[in-house]
Amino acid sequence: MFSYVKDLGIDVLFKGHNFLRLMGGLLVTLKISLISIAISVVLGLAFGILMQKKNIAVRVVSRIYIDFIRIMPQLVLLFIVYFGSTRAFRINLTGELSAIIVFSLWGIAEMGEIVRGSLSSVSNHQYESAEALGLSRLQTFIYVILPQSLRRIIPISINLITRMIKTTSLVLMIGVVEMIKVAQQIIEANRMLSKNAAFGVYLVVFILYFLICWPISVLSMKLEKRWK
Amino acid sequence: MDYEFIIKFLPLYKEAAILTLKIGIIGIIFAIIIGLALTIITFYQVPVLRNITKFYIELSRNTPLIIQLFFIYYGLPKVGISIKAEMCAILGLAFLGGSYMAETFRSGIEAIDVIQKESAYSLGFSKLQTIIYIIMPQAIRVSLHGIIANIIFLLKETSVFSAISIMDLMFTAKDLIGIYYNTIEALLMLVLFYLIILLPVSIIGILIERKIKYV
């Protein structure tokens, strides 16, 4: 049994602090995605509400913002912020900070679109009935519209969390030491001792990603079904 | 802005864009084929295969493409399966896209009334004929919007290929930034080329959606 584990190269992870290091990398991944998610949820909600405004300027600017962010690969956005900001504005952002900026910008766009969609899917007579009952505009929004929209918003935004965690894996391309980068380092360091480390270590990282994202996806799916 | 630089390295970007597109299109075609196959399996609840399909869909949807690629490119050779970088990229894209396509087709099929299937059976269609001639044409129509969204998503994901040292757009941009330090120009061309690739698909998607709405 043990020799089998060795052949797959998983044993490398149990030498020294290797597994702890990998977990440390995982923490970096989770930290970046959770901070970005928190920013996206708060600002995205505000952005979605703002887009309800009929103002032409607001509409055009938000449309361009959303379309540009959504059509560009996240890696391109990371490059623009990480390499571009240094050159254009002479500010030196760390990889982690650039990642948080990019993922927040992306999350706000996605979140704003979700919020806008679900707010406008609330039918018109809900507004009219609330008005007929004498509720003010703010009261209508807080007590009538928001609770109905949240049932749509929450499952999709939970799904956004898994997308965010998956996309965070890209930060290794701008030099942030996260889980995959740590895995790479472990494999490189043990090149001579364990030739098959690349198989075992990457397999473990693969499974770790799955174990983190899968429960969140399941939760999102369950909520979506229940609140339909 | 250094225009000479842009003109000098434009062909390099063009080459990279063509490579990106080539891998992307082949990968997407495989993804659609996998998606269709999986949909047929789930539609007919084929035993065993059905469970494998379910597991595969969850596995591929809940892991990032980059680790899938690393596993295929660096991991598999250790157990004796050596694949060229470009094949790895196609394989990775198909592995990722297959599940997304399957989910889109499934939601399209779910939108079609059971009566269509029953009517086809009563007319003497076989199981396979029913799905090919009756269910699929309607389902694809319903899920066309989702398919275009998936294609855009997969084309965007191709940016990750530079991680397994394929000379794609990202790789070219990073290389030029590293060598010549013309960051702004290199990034501008990168954005332009991605727009050239992605905007037409996006516009086609909008047009198709509009057409379906009015029919």
Explain what the structure shows.
The complex is a heterodimer of chains A (228) and B (215). Chain A is mostly helical. Chain A has helices at 2-8, 18-50, 56-71, 74-89, 95-120, 124-132, 137-167, 179-189, 197-226. The longest helix of chain A is centred in the N-terminal third of the chain and has 33 residues, at 18-50. Chain A starts with a helix and ends with a helix. In chain A, 40% of the residues are buried. The mean pLDDT of chain A is 88. Chain B is mainly alpha-helical and 215 residues long. The mean pLDDT of chain B is 89. In chain B, 81% of the residues lie in helices and 0% in strands. Chain B has a single domain (3-214), classed as MetI-like fold (Orthogonal Bundle), CATH 1.10.3720.10. Chain B starts with a helix and ends with a helix. Classes of the chains: A mainly alpha (228), B mainly alpha (215). Chains A and B meet through helix 4, helix 7 and helix 9 of A and helix 2, helix 3, helix 6, helix 7 and helix 8 of B.
Helix/strand-derived category of chain A reads mainly alpha
Largest interface: A-B, 38 and 40 residues
Main sheet properties of chain A: none
- Work out the strand percent of chain B: under 5%
Strand content bin of chain A: under 5%
Helix-strand makeup class of chain B: mainly alpha
CATH superfamily of chain B: MetI-like
Number of domains of chain B: 1
Low-confidence sequence ranges of chain B: none
Q: Superfamily at the CATH H level of chain A?
A: MetI-like
Number of helices of chain B: 8
What's the helix-strand series of chain B? HHHHHHHH
What is the gyration radius of chain B calculated from CA atoms?
21 Å
Low-confidence stretches of chain A: none
List keywords for this structure.
heterodimer; A: 228 residues; mainly alpha; MetI-like fold; 79% helix; 0% strand; elongated; B: 215 residues; flat
Concise description?
Chain A has about 230 residues and is mostly helical. Chain A has helices at about 1-10, 20-50, 55-70, 75-90, 95-120, 125-130, 135-165, 180-190, 195-225. The model of chain A has no long low-confidence stretch (mean pLDDT about 90).
